[in-house]
């Protein structure tokens, strides 16, 4: 169904108050300036985007541009259609943010496969890096520098080039660029291995981190926004669960297939493995180049936020006044730093606490990583029936309890407590991410870049933990992650005290559900339209469309 506005030519600005005499002729000047047909729009475009009061009607062009009209008609027939244009017009409505569960299955599945595959490739990095450290006799202090190089890329990328790419060119091209950067970084390990260069190794890790940070800048918000809003946390939790499976499977496969005991300082297998990773991620880039993914624009997110405003109380505010986002970035920074601090020192903790051999401690760490993957599946299932803010509070409370016990006890009990910390860490990152970007509207992509940049906390906490471990032992060193978890723990408390109504409104919205009654959610939007001049004949169109739903 389309809404056709056809005044008698020539088109001229009516005299008097244009808001009263011609309410339906108020349209987005940006759309007109792009040369699109001012008379033919989809019903959603007419009623929810372009009924705004202040516009110079005389600036409209009566001439139609044939290819652009065809593109609009295609979007009207397929609300979830994606654009093949390299540059994404952020003010264009594509309808991708209102996909139903059925419509979102294909794009979500494709990106989830990407999550698993890059989780697998990331899992290989730990094994390969260990081989490099053994061959080059890298000290513990230098090993901290390697983590700094990798996680430091997360601070640079999302706040500069990757954040800009996703806003200007969209998610699909950001996937492609991120995979290509990752592939280049993997290729650089070959000359680093040939020359046995520590500086080259750090540079390679920085480029790999840049590629993965670019992927996260696009993949996480894409999963969170592509489909019914009430399932955002479930979708991202489930997708990242498959990433965790890949991260657990890769080291086990590498230790039993790629590498054997006694390889010593031979780096030839490391070189070939990195070359295989590079070829694989370049292949993924080609797959995404030919894939049709729906593009979620800033206009789509703004429309989604405004449509559900009756439930959430959404207000379009500048991004620096989005206090939930700012708190979420701080919580994510401290949480990721604490998580990496625990993981980086888990094996040494087990050796010191339970007097285990390195091989036995490594097996315990593999078991803990398995619990981490299981925890993500468990959290995803819980979020189908429990509000995500409650799940986040529950898991963070458990982390605080078990990390405190792990500091105070020794032996097998301490190792078991630290393993449970990894289990409850499982849902924290994706849940903080989705709750922090909830209700940002047109600021969603920029806000997501900020939250991904907070992963750079992993560059700070491990070295601090290691420094304290050298002085006081690995038990006491867990006080550093405890501090990070404490800051992150304040975030779910804040959400439950001050943001409950907003978050529950997003949880209750029926956007993206076939045949859903959105009248309650549109109530606030109807009032907004009337305040903007959508009266008279415009109100009749609104009433007719609401009843037709």
TrEMBL record:
Topological type in the membrane: Multi-pass membrane protein
Pfam families according to UniProt: MFS_1
Region (Disordered): 1-22, 522-549
Biased composition (Basic and acidic residues): 522-533, 540-549
Subcellular location per the Swiss-Prot or TrEMBL entry: Cell inner membrane
Region forming the signal peptide: none
InterPro entries: MFS, MFS_trans_sf, MFS_TsgA-like
One GO CC term on file: plasma membrane
Molecular-function GO term, any one: transmembrane transporter activity
Keyword tags: Cell membrane, Membrane, Transmembrane, Transmembrane helix
Transmembrane segments: 105-125, 145-166, 173-191, 236-259, 271-291, 325-347, 390-409, 415-436, 448-468, 474-497
Name assigned to this protein: Major facilitator superfamily (MFS) profile domain-containing protein
Organism the protein comes from: Monilinia vaccinii-corymbosi
């Amino acid at each position: 169904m389309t809404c056709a506005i056809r005044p008698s030519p020539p088109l001229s600005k009516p005299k008097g108050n244009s808001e009263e005499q011609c309410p339906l002729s108020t349209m987005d000047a940006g759309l007109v300036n792009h040369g699109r047909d001012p008379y033919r729009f989809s019903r959603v475009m007419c009623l929810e985007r372009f009924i705004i009061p202040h516009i110079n009607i005389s600036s409209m062009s009566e001439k139609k541009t044939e290819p652009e009209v065809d593109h609009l008609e295609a979007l009207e027939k397929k609300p979830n259609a994606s654009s093949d244009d390299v540059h994404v017009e952020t003010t264009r409505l594509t309808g991708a943010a209102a996909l139903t569960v059925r419509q979102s299955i294909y794009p979500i599945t494709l990106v989830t496969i990407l999550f698993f595959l890059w989780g697998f490739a990331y899992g290989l990095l730990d094994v390969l890096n260990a081989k490099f450290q053994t061959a080059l006799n890298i000290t513990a202090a230098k090993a901290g520098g390697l983590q700094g190089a990798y996680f430091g890329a997360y601070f640079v990328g999302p706040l500069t080039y990757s954040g800009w790419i996703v806003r200007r060119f969209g998610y699909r091209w950001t996937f492609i660029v991120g995979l290509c950067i990752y592939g280049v970084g993997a290729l650089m390990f070959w000359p680093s291995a040939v020359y046995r260069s520590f500086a080259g190794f750090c540079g390679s890790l920085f480029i790999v981190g840049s590629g993965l940070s670019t992927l996260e800048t696009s993949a996480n918000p894409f999963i969170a926004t592509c489909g019914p809003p009430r399932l955002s946390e479930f979708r991202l939790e489930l997708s990242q669960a498959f990433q965790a499976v890949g991260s657990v499977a890769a080291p086990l496969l590498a230790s039993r297939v790629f590498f054997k005991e006694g390889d010593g300082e031979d780096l030839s297998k490391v070189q070939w493995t990195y070359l295989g990773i590079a070829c694989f991620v370049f292949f993924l880039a080609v797959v995404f180049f030919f894939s049709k993914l729906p593009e979620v624009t800033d206009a789509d997110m703004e429309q989604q936020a405004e449509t559900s405003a009756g439930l959430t109380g959404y207000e379009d505010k500048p991004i620096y006044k989005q206090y939930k986002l700012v708190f979420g970035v701080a919580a994510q920074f401290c949480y990721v730093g604490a998580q990496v601090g625990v993981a980086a020192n888990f094996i040494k903790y087990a050796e010191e606490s339970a007097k285990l051999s390195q091989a036995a401690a490594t097996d315990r760490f593999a078991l803990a990583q398995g619990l981490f993957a299981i925890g993500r599946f468990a959290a995803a299932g819980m979020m189908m029936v429990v509000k995500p803010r409650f799940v986040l509070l529950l898991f963070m409370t458990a982390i605080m309890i078990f990390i405190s016990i792990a500091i105070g006890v020794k032996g097998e009990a301490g190792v078991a407590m630290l393993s449970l910390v990894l289990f409850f860490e499982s849902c924290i990152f994706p849940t903080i991410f989705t709750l922090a970007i909830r209700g940002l509207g047109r600021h969603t992509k920029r806000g997501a870049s900020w939250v991904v940049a907070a992963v750079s906390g992993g560059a700070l906490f491990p070295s601090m933990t290691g420094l304290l471990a050298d002085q006081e032992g690995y038990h006491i060193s867990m006080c550093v992650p405890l501090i990070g978890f404490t800051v992150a723990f304040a975030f779910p408390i804040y959400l439950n005290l001050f943001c409950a109504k907003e978050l529950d409104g997003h949880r209750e919205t029926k956007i993206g559900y076939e045949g859903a009654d959105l009248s309650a959610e549109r109530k606030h939007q109807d009032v907004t339209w009337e305040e903007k001049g959508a009266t008279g004949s415009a109100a009749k169109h609104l009433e007719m469309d609401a009843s037709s739903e």
